[in-house]
From TrEMBL:
This is Fumarate reductase. Keywords: FAD, Flavoprotein, Oxidoreductase. The lineage of its organism: Eukaryota, Fungi, Dikarya, Ascomycota, Saccharomycotina. It comes from Cyberlindnera jadinii (strain ATCC 18201 / CBS 1600 / BCRC 20928 / JCM 3617 / NBRC 0987 / NRRL Y-1542) (Torula yeast). Binds 1 FAD per monomer. Belongs to the FAD-dependent oxidoreductase 2 family. FRD/SDH subfamily. Its cofactor is FAD. It is an enzyme of class 1 (oxidoreductase). Residues 1-23 are annotated as: Disordered.
Amino acid sequence: MSINHHFSKLTKEDPSEESTDMKPPVVVVGSGLAGLSSAYTLLLRNVPVVLLEKGEKFGGNSMKASSGINGMHTETQKLKGIEDSFEVFYNDTINSAKHVGDKDLQRVLVNDSTKAIDWLKTSIGVPLNVVNRLGGHSQTRTHRSEGVPPGFEIISKLLAKVKEQPGVELHNGAKLTGLDIVDNKVKGVKYLNVTSGEESTIKTSNVVIATGGFGYSKELLSKYTPHYVDFPTTNDKNTQGEGQVILENAGGELIDMEYVQIHPTGFIKKDDPQSNWKFLAAESLRGIGGILLNAKFDRFVNELDTRDAVSKAILAQEGKKAYLVLSDDMYKDFKFQIDFYKKMNLIEETTLSEKFGDDSAKVIELLREYSNGSEDQFGRKFKQHVFPDVSPDTTLYIGEVTPVVHFTMGGVKIDINGEVLNKDGVPIEGLYAAGEVSGGVHGKNRLGGNSLLECVVFGTRAGEQIAEKYKL
C-alpha cells in the first residue's frame, strides 16, 4: 500500500522541479456518498485522486441509508403531479433545524437539490422514480428507486463509476491520522495502514475530508452531549469522529458539536433487546402511513412530526419504546425493505387478534379512526396508506422501536463550496470537508432525507472548486 511511491513523479520534494502539468493527486478521505461524489467529480475532470477508507469496505454509513434523498422541482415529482418550491423546502429545513445553522449553507443545500437528483439519475444511473414524505416535510420530496434500498443503490453505482475512471487509487484500511498544514495551506495527509501499522504521508495541495460523524464515539459524546452517551446507536463502529478532531487540530473551527440527533425509531431485536447497536427503522415506514402505539396500545404523537419531537414523545412512554404498526398496503409499498426487516427478526407479520388479544376491539376502533381520512387529534394530515376494512383477522406488520443516536449535526465550519474555515473565518487553502464531518447545515435537528443530499451537494461543490484550480 505504497501510495507515495506510485505518485512520486507527481510529488517531488523540490517545487522548482515540478512540471506545470504534473500536479499531485487530490486526497479524498472517506468513501461514503460525500467522498465518492467529490472523487467522481474530480476524476471526470481529469484530476488524479487517491481515495482513503478506514474500514474494510467502501461505502460508509451512506450505504445503510434507507429512506432516500430530498429534491425539489424534479422530474419524478413533476410526473406525479407534486408541486414543490424552494421556499417550502427551505422553510421545512430551517424549521427542523430550529432556525439554527448557517443560512447560506442551508440555501445552497435546497437550491442545489434539483441538480443533485438529476446528477444521480443521469450521470450515475439511479432511477429515483419513487417519492415519499418524511417527518417534518410539507411536501412529498424524498426520492428513492423502486424495490431497492436507496443508500445501497446509490453507493454501489457511484463506486462502480469511480472505479472505472483512470487516475484513481482506492485504499481501504487507511486511517487518517493528521494533516500537514503550513502557513494556512495544505501540504500533505498522514495516514496509518491499519493492517501493517505502517505510517505514511501523501504530499498534496488539496484534500477532501469526508469521514462522517461521531455517533459511535463514547469519548466525543461524553465531551459534547453526555446525556446521550448511554443511548443505543445506529452508527457503524468506524463512526468515531477522527475527522472532526484532526480538522480542529489543523486549525479548523468546530461548530454545533452539542447537537446530536436522536432518531425516534431504532428496532429492538427480540433476541438481543439490550444491544447497543440498533437497525434503523426507516422513516419512510411512518411516511407511508405507519403509526406508533405505546404499551397501552394508544397513539400518542403525530408520527410525521420532526425527529426530535417524535423521539421526545417516545421517551415519555412506558419503557421508552413503542410499537410501529403497518398495514398490508404499506407492506406492498415498501416490500423490499420490510422483507429484510422480517428476515432479521425485526418486524413480525401477524393478525390483529394474535397481537393484541383482549385489546383487539380497542385497536380496531383506533385504526378505523386513523383511517377516516381527516386530520387527527395529533395534527397528522398526510396518510399515504391507512388500515382499510380493519377486523380481528387483518394482517399487520409490527416491530418494537426506541430512540437511538443517529446523526451528529456538528463538525468543522465550511463555506458554500466546502472549504474549511479556520478560527478567524479564513479558508484553509486546499482543505475541504463534506458530509457529516462538517457543521452548520442542519442546525439543531436534521430533516430526514437531507443527509444524502448534503453529501452530493457539498461533495460535488468541493470537487468542482478543486478541479477549477487544476486548470490554472
